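Researcher: Good morning. I'm working through a list of sequences from a screen, and I'd like to move beyond sequence-only analysis. For each chain I'm collecting a predicted structure so we can compare shapes side by side. This is the next one on the list. No need for commentary yet; just the structure.
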Amino acid sequence: MSIAESVAGELVAEQPGTELVEIKKFDQQLAEFTAKYSGVVYDLTDPAVEKQARSDRYAIGKVVGKLDCKHAEVKAPLLERARILDAERKRIKDGLQGVQEGIKSQIEEHEARIKARREALEARIASISALAVFETVPDSIDIRCRIEDAREVVVDTSFEDMEAQAALAKMRVMEGLERLLADAVAKEKADAATKKREAEEEAQRQEVARQEAEAAAVAQAERDKKIAEEAAAKAKQEADAELEAQREATAVVLGFPRGSVGRR
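Model: Good morning. Structure tokens for this chain:
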């Protein structure tokens, strides 16, 4: 059922002495037809009876048609009144909702400002927490710089109702950075000690290698000297033998007895 039909029904119910009376007039014919035809069984195999049944159906149909026409006639002005009523309701409702929208937009703008301010405060607190986050493993210098940055953060009433959260974030960042610094310093000391030990061990290895190289060089020099001395002695021996052979040859040429040249 449409709104117009519903309103029309309500209007009819409110005016039983006018429009509804026109419809109620058909109650008498309904009662007559009900009394006359209720329980009637037609022998439709009899042509005359079948003709009478069709005539009775037509007679009732004419009354139904008149009822519909009367209903449309009575309902038309009611529907027009309902249309006017709907239009007035829409006009007033649109006006009310327009006023309501003005209030609603103010509330939404106020809520948007509150949300933006809260997001800005949350971003400030997040930036404090981010001071304890490093993209790579930091050294003690990096951590000390972050600690100084954290110390310079001022937590005051500018954080409004989130001042306690900002103070807690700063405290946690300071604690975290101090732990990181202690770990970094300990690691750097351990690394320095390891490097010093490795450097000393390397220096010792190089000294041993140098001493071994010097010893090897001395040994090689002695071997080279011995070989040179042996070669010189051998060369002298060979030279002396060659000189002796030449003297013997000269003695033979001169007619001296073999072995007499060079003797004293």
